[in-house]
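Data card: per-record layout.
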Amino acid sequence: MNFLHALADLLKPATPPDPAVAAALDRVIGLVDPLVRAAPRLEKHLLSAVEHALGYCQGLVAALPGPIPINRQAFGSDALVHALFATANDIDEMLGRSQAVRDFLNKPECWASDSFCAMLAARREQKRHFGMAQQGSIIRADVPQEVLYFSSQTLIEPSCELSATRSRLQARALESLLQAFNAHVENLRQERQGLRTNLSVEHAQFQNWHHAHPNDETTQYTRRLVELDVNLRQHDEALMPENLVELLADFLRHPESALSLTPVSVRIDRMGIVHDSSDGDAQTITFPELSSRDRRQHLAALVSISREEARAAVEKSRDQQKRFIIV
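The structure for this 327-residue chain is written out next.
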């Protein structure tokens, strides 16, 4: 009887995957290197790995703070917003030059709400210099200081619906993972081509040398040729579709190696000077830094922006561009 139950379970059709997982699987297959798509039973090999990677990306986006209002009032009252921009005018400049914001404002959906959400990414920069500081009752001008500031502020996936922004960010996170994997495959492909070239050159040099020195020991040359041949065979094997699928599945089960969030806390004053002690004029700002496939780190947070303020900033930027062209 147990045997019949086991046989019935074995013959039972597989449960269809969750629609979100199925969509993510289709997207992965569409974006992955063509070599991987040549592997047999691709969907079966990748389904659980894609499900894990999708859950990871969802958790990553869910961990983003915000939405944080970004405007002139917040620049004066919020320590993090004040640190993100050198002046309040820089907020308008970011909005005015953002192609994502311009595209969003040209869509009918922008009128669904008076404000919209987006992800703000910015590079954290820190530099050392000598500045003025009070030490006891003495004000000194040669005190070594570390200054924190941010650059390359960028808005990503603006939308009136926070859920839509989160969903699009999840898709972009999964796409980033695939880009990292494809870059790895391309590196393997280039390394293989380099090994082929080196093996051809070394073989030609060996033939010439052996022709000129027929009675000399050839161990050194043959060892080098064998070493190159073994490395080439290893790369050939690694680039076989069935092996690449296993590599991709393992990569998607450990996505933190290519995409992760790290919490950062820094104590700064209104001038951006970093303080180690509990200085009364300093505040602690906390934010996550996103580390992606290029290994560069960016502050990442969800922000809320007024549609009319964004529209005014875009119009101001266009007007300045027109004046520059006329001049």
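Known properties of this structure: Residues 68-171+259-326 form one domain. The chain has two domains: 15-62+179-256, 68-171+259-326.

See the next section for split statistics.
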